């Protein structure tokens, strides 16, 4: 599966970033009971966090792109946690998508599709997941989007 995901990334013109180190007192991934619990991942472009607030200074397209970049970071964290072996992924169970948005912005599900569609494209049927898409007043470091995940893995 790792080779398939690498090929799909290349086909999409994307590449996985280096898995980001935590910015506070937590770990990026916890493995427990056959599941990976992945801490919220921020969107990075050219080594910098994508910032902004949807409905104010960040467009819907920029939000979708930011969510996709969060999805790339999720996959990078999964790959790092599994020693590079993405074939251990059985199912992407759930994504939690947090969108830095104004009170009148209501397209959080459309923003979240940036991450969801990437994960489905990379993992196929195993990438079809449950999801939350929530608007929030602010995110760490001014990020436009943050995404966390729950992933079932093989031993």
UniProtKB/TrEMBL annotation:
Name of this chain's protein: Enamine deaminase RidA (YjgF/YER057c/UK114 family)
InterPro entries: Endoribo_LPSP/chorism_mut-like, RutC-like_sf
Residue span(s) of domain Endoribonuclease L-PSP/chorismate mutase-like: 7-147
A Pfam cross-reference name: YjgF_endoribonc
Organism (species): Sphingomonas japonica
């Amino acid at each position: 599966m790792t080779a398939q995901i690498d090929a799909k990334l290349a086909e999409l013109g994307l590449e996985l970033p280096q898995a980001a180190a935590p910015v506070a007192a937590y770990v990026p991934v916890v493995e427990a009971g056959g599941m990976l619990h992945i801490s919220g991942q921020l969107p990075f472009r050219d080594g910098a966090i994508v910032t902004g607030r949807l409905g104010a200074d960040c467009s819907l397209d920029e939000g979708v792109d930011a969510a996709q970049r969060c999805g790339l970071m999720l996959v990078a964290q999964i790959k790092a946690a599994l020693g590079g072996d993405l074939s251990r992924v059985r199912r992407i169970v759930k994504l939690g998508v947090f969108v830095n948005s104004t009170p009148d912005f209501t397209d959080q599900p459309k923003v979240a599709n940036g991450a969801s569609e990437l994960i489905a494209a990379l993992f196929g049927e195993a990438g079809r997941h449950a999801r939350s898409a929530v608007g929030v007043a602010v995110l760490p470091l001014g990020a436009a989007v943050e995404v966390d995940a729950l992933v079932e893995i093989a031993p």
